[in-house]
Design a protein that fits this description.
Length: 352
Amino acid sequence: MKIALFPGDGIGPEIMGEARRVLDAIDLRGLVLFEGDVGGAAYRRYGHPLPPETLDMAKAADAVLFGAVGDPACDNLERHLRPEQAILGLRSQLGLFANLRPATMFPGLEDMSALRPEVASQIDLLIVRELNGDVYFGEKAMRVLDDGRRQGYDFMSYAEDEVRRIAHVAFRAAQGRKGKLCSVDKANVLETSQLWRDVVIETHAEYPDVELSHMYVDNAAMQLVRNPGQFDVVVTGNLFGDILSDQASMCVGSIGLLASAALGERQTDFGTFGMYEPIHGSAPDIAGQGKANPMAMILSLAMLLRHSLGLEAEAARIEAAVGKTLEDGVLGADLGGSAGTSEVGDAVLARL
Ligand code: IPM
Ligand code: MG
């Protein structure tokens, strides 16, 4: 079993350190770890946020555990050299089109939610975000118009096969949960979304046991704070999924709690090849201070064990230890507590 660890920038290395301790504690036989550079860290070392060495390492592994990328010192670089290109490049070059972002209320944390506790307690949803298309990967540029005004543009599109394959992932996910799928789009304005909706409806014919609904993204943003308990599985495009998953995290209580999996079609000897990362960023404002909450990173490791290595029991053990840590009130600053990165890690390890 080979795992590539890419800590990245900002708080990435700190939280990766805690995930690493959890991995060591699980003590898997035959596990081989590689460590690679991504993001601003890789740019400084190799002159590129996703050097070929790193990409090759990812391809040779059964799974990638990814910390975070983003570095204000790199904000003025040309776009293709910015840290974010590491994650976008890995997602596209490894064909990781299906992003699973679960958001579930942890018992005992209801008061930490930005929502009223009785509303927040109902949250148990999964956002299935398309990750290889949309406005993220369309043609984009800055240009100067004939009259001298500068213009930026980004081309939004989805081809039907791109929608179909993510729809299949979402319908199957719904079958394994409460059997409800809500497809989020902006079909009242965008042709991209009209095609999205048509293809999701066509694909539904193969899943008569799943209850399908559609929602415009503005309404979905509103419903997510009004009554998040109505959602089971949500399927949406790359941009809308990016936004709604950050929103869902604060409904749960902190962006420091949400893990994610990016999966493609490649199978390994143990499961599906994937890349796993917290949904939060590199948090440069608190980097290097030992303050970051490592839970999203540790929960991402649990997802890795489940989906890529077929280790359901170990994944469940880690999730239970994180849940118990929260229930016992060991909380980082993001949750109004005072536990630092390694204290949270210690607490999780003790409960493991
Ligand atoms: C995420 C992040 C990334 C995205 C950034 C870092 C490019 O916000 O994984 O949600 O926009 O997808
Ligand atoms: Mg995001």
